[in-house]
User: Fold N-acetylmuramoyl-L-alanine amidase from Sporobacter termitidis DSM 10068.
Amino acid sequence: MRRLFKKALPTLVIVIVFMAAGIYFFIRGGAHDGTAIKASAVKGDLTVIVDAGHGGADGGAVSLSGVKESAVNIDIATRLDLILGFFGTHVEMTRTSENLEYSEKSDTIRQKKAEDQSRRLKQINSAQNAVLISIHQNIYPSSGPFGAQVLYAPTNGSKEFGAAMQQLLIDALNPKNKRTADEAPDNILLMNHITCPALLIECGFLSNPEEEKLLMTDTYRTKIAAVIAAGYLANRENLVDINSGGTNEGKDSILLY
Assistant:
């Protein structure tokens, strides 16, 4: 019986999250201040850092219809923040809008990206018991590739978390997706300069016409956020005892994300 329950848990969590998401967004529809329910951090509890990739001077990839990746990322990240908040999860966002402030010394786009990445790293590494979930979109020269993919950090617990999240994304979003969770390459700064469990989730391909069309809809973005929230909630207990914090400054990373 216990084995059957464990096998059914991810599906049950998805159903619960979908119901909660529907109720929450219905209630939120009556509010006009744009605020979300925020849970206070409790000593020993996890802090989920939701990172909306790119933003500000860095728009990321551009979809077939001309929408910037950064705008899609912040929309899904905000939905994820709201859903996790509904479940009492303490969430911190690395950015809450498309506009980012930079110091006067940052003139070029590269300098602004470097400054922003340093700011995000500082926030992540200063959070106690952190778990990082970074939201991105994929792109490819041809229109064929599709499907969400998880990249996991080379940190304790990330591989297992990533594999579970990848399977959940396949089951809930696209059973034809044959992609597997892979370790993030060395040139992704955020994933290689932290020690907390961390996932970078490529939610879909902006270069695939069918998937790009889905990613432009509120319904699909909410579904992605709900599945990611379910993946975290289903694996939360496995993440609780993992130590986090610190940096790994020995690697020469390139600012690709």
In short: The first strand starts at residue 47 and ends at 52. DSSP finds seven helices and six strands in the chain. Helices lie at 2-28, 69-86, 109-126, 158-173, 189-192, 209-215, 218-240.
